[in-house]
Amino acid sequence: MSDLSERRPVNADYAVSLLEQLKFFYEQKLLTDVVLLVEGSEFPCHKMVLATCSSYFRAMFMSGLSESKQTHVSLRNVDPATLQIIITYAYTGNLAISDSTVEPLYETACFLQVEDVLLQCRDYLVKKINAENCVRMLSIGDLFSCSELKQSAKRMVEHKFPVVYRQEAFLQLSHELLIDILSSDNLNVEKEEAVREAAMLWLEYNMEARSQHLSSVLSQIRIDALSEVTQRAWFQGLPPNDKSVVVQGLYKSMPKFFKPRLGMTKEEMLIFMEAMSEVQGDGYVMSTSVPTAIVCYSPQAEKVYKLHNPPGDLQKVGTLVTPDNDVYIAGGQIPLKNSIANHGKGSRLQAVFRSVDSFFWFDAQQNSWVPKTPMLCARIKPSLVYCEGCIYAIGGDSVGGELNKRTVERYDCEKDEWTMMSPLPFAWNWSTSVVAHGCIYVMTHDLTYCYFPRADTWVEMAMRKTSRCFASAAAFGDLIFYIGGLHVVSNSGVRMPTSTIDGSSVTVEIYDVNKNEWRAAANIPAKRYSDPCVRAVVLLGSLCIFMRETHMNERAKYAIYQYDVELDRWFLRQPVSERVLWDLGKDFRCAVGKLYPSCLEESPWKPPTCLFSPDGADEFEVDGELVTFPHV
Hints:
This is Kelch repeat and BTB (POZ) domain containing 2. The chain contains 18 helices and 39 strands.
């Protein structure tokens, strides 16, 4: 005999049927027992349904007071269209949220205490936070006591502070919210002058009403962090009333040493993605790529830090750092399962992957990835570029045949939405893409195409002297550098990649954007090492390459080279110590961004001082102790 207390699964078909019947009764006005009155509009409903989803109506209809017996209920300060959305949700479970409806919907859901609608609106608003609306979202979160929305918006205000403090919404902030922002250690400002200007703009916006806050606002400025020039001109910038008293009081109250804002601690770092390795086991080879943690290297401090791994074990993503220093990843693949396949001499553990359309923004303060609206197409290793205020996802190894590999889509950062654009001219690998003079240049083989955003058109440009693919490229001023890659030869009309670049040097070609011309440049010396991997970057205001060099069975060596345009010469800018950066593999990708060391985890492991024992043994003595070299 079965246990009667056993929990049984919900009958989904019955639940759906019940909702459909309730919706039918509502639409046909059958068995309704209350009418909601809003601005002359009537909404016949069922008390039971309203009380189920709304704490406001539950208290009204179950209080036992006269209100519970009313057949007509008037609601003030409620928009009829917004109320209709909430009623539709109550009867169907479907909530229609859009940019134009989310804010009034959130306000009405707060008033009617519809918890599920509140949570969905909150998540929608948090996801939509950007530089244009973060101040307004901060005010909304504060008004409705939504801590999640308020904290997310505040982090964006701090991150985008150099831009947002000039916005009208910032100048209209309440005194309490302003103080909360100006006092924050996490402001992304490189100089305290930006904080001073923000404070003065807010005070001068309505000086008559805000003069009472003069001292409390100006006391948030860290005076010792201001330049001497700014400090000398301090009196001239103050309001005419009581300026000397205020400034003297501030100087006396300020400590001699200030805590730097977070933006003052930024360091320009090399960010390494897709560092892969191949693991061998007993009786089989693991052919799946095993990603290491995303790491970044600070050339100034010569330190390595860890970034939080992408969600869901994402691999082979596209990476972008915008001019505003926002880090994004897009697309990629996620592992599903492993399967054993026989390959002659032994078995091989073959990973199964699924390509995805994911899109994430990196919250540098929290060292976490924030999901944004996914792309329209699933893409593996798409090329991401930032042009004319939008992000473009170009090509990639996507599912769906040749036509899908040619697709290009554009992301509107303000609207958080993607739009399909004109496709690529061919379905080749266009992973080499850069932006120069407001246009996008894609390169592969000996071809170069330019995309004009305003015309949504691709135009073929001058051909290169050599045919190479999988190269690295970077734009620097009016020049585009195309570096390394694989030579391509034609075989019966089919272009095939040959062996890697000559082991003694790495090929470099330069495209002049103004002249539409390619020219050969000085090759990068690769010394005696074979199989060099080069990644072109703009680092600390100079065109550089990060190079990984290997020779035979030796371990990887790294170095940063810088290009001198006038001399057409590459010189070693900085060798990277083997005690700092370990093996990244050959498939890593590289980007440059300014990150906060205090928000990252410093990589704790460093190789021992003596990397190789003279006799090649696995164990050797360091500082009187026997050390086993770690397996890589």
